[in-house]
Amino acid sequence: MRSFKSLSEQEVLALAISLEEEDARIYEDFADGLKADYPATAQILTEMRAEEDGHRHRLIDLYRRNFGDHIPLIRRHDVKGFVTRRPIWLVRPLGLDAVRKQVELMELETKRFYETAIRQTTDAGIRQLLGDLAEEERKHALLAEELESSRRSSGALAEEAATKNRLFVLQVVQPGLAGLMDGSVSTLAPLFAAAFATGKTWPTFLVGMAASLGAGISMGFAEALSDDGSLTGRGRPWSRGFVCGLMTALGGLGHTMPYLITDYKTATGVAIAVVVVELLVISWVRHRFMDTPLTSAIFQVVVGGVLVFITGILIGSS
Q1: Could you tell me the fold of the domain covering 4-154?
Q2: Does residue 125 contact residue 66 with C-beta atoms inside 8 Å?
Q3: Which residues contact 295 (CB under 8 A, 6 or more apart)?
Q4: Rounded to an integer, what distance in angstroms lies between the CA atom of residue 18 and that of residue 75?
Q5: How far apart are CA 82 and CA 7, in angstroms?
Q6: Residue 30: C-alpha distances to residues 19, 143, 163, 231, 271 (Å)
Q7: 37: Cβ–Cβ under 8 A, 6 or more apart, which residues?
Q8: pLDDT by residue (tens digit) across 276-311?
């Protein structure tokens, strides 16, 4: 690995060409990853990519006039002093805030590179171009910092916030809510059937644990294998499956844990209270994120829960 001070003017220009090419390709990847959900930000990144390409062409023209057609391959990781970049541009789906932060860091780093390169060169033409590019990168850095305010004033911020909310509902709330409803409701019957059949807390606890964990595993796989998210926009299948499976298990474990209490009547009373809280939470989530009227949500969830609860009691008491 070379130190920056050891580079010749020819090598400094070759490195600058490589940096501009890399930055342009990263901006293109960022824009491609954001265009479906955040078109306003993607458009800005596309424009920045075009400007980076313009910088590269100016650098190549100057290099050819001074040093000929052959450009040695010198990349950022061949020279000491550059910060290692995590390849977040390869991640799908892209995080909007992470992209903005990365763009700001990239522009600041490139500006510092040109300012340092000016001090290491003596050719007037090279110094002039490097100085011009340093000023343009400074403007890019300011643009990256002001991206938030420009998006807010143009209305893009509100649009992207709405998109974020839709994706959050599709990728987290929907699978989580499905799991929570299944875990909270479907495990009521086996749990309370065991409770009323045995009149003992430990066997009831074991039945509840088995039902909750089994349902969590089943729902997790069912959600993960339902679709790959490419057409529905529901995100990565295994992430959805994890959310759905986890919430299913938690929904069942909520009213199972009270049966760790040794007194049967106390444990059953606490479990019933937990069930009421779970059903109310599910109703609120449906109202908050699924635009269901609160009264309708409570009616739908509570009626289903009560029917399953009564089923368990009748079976356990028979």
Answers
A1: Ferritin (1.20.1260)
A2: yes
A3: none
A4: 6
A5: 14
A6: 16, 16, 17, 20, 49
A7: 93, 160, 163, 167
A8: 998 888 888 888 777 678 888 888 888 888 899 899
Contact 268, 274 (CB under 8 A): no
Of 17-21, 74-78, 143-147, 155-159, least confident by mean pLDDT is: 155-159
- In whole numbers, what is the pLDDT of the chain averaged over residues? 83
Residues ≥6 apart with Cβ < 8 Å to 164: 96
pLDDT of residue 231: 40
Which two structure tokens, joined as six digits, stand for 207? 């039945």
What six digits make up the tokens of 263? 């007194």
Distance of alpha carbon 74 from alpha carbon 90, whole angstroms: 23
Helix (H) or strand (E) holding 230: none
Q: How many residues does the chain have?
A: 318
**Domain ranges in the chain with CATH number 1.20.1260.10:** 4-154
235: left (phi over 0), alpha (psi -120 to 50) or beta: left
Residue 2 φ/ψ, nearest 5 degrees: -85, 150
Q: What is the pLDDT of residues 168-222, one digit of tens each?
A: 766 777 888 888 888 888 898 899 999 999 999 999 999 999 999 998 898 888 8
CA torsion through residues 298, 213, 267, 200, sign: positive
Residue tagged 């992209």 (tokens):
99
- Average the pLDDT over 146-154 and give the result: 51
The residue to which tokens 């509902």 are assigned: 169
Q: How confident is the model at residue 50 (pLDDT cuts 50, 70, 90)?
A: very high
Residue 163 has pLDDT above 70, yes or no: no
Alpha helices for 121-155 (secondary structure H): 124-154
What is the C-alpha separation between 207 and 211, in angstroms, rounded?
A: 6
Hey, what amino acid is at 49?
A: R
Measured CA to CA, the distance from residue 33 to residue 35 in angstroms comes to 6
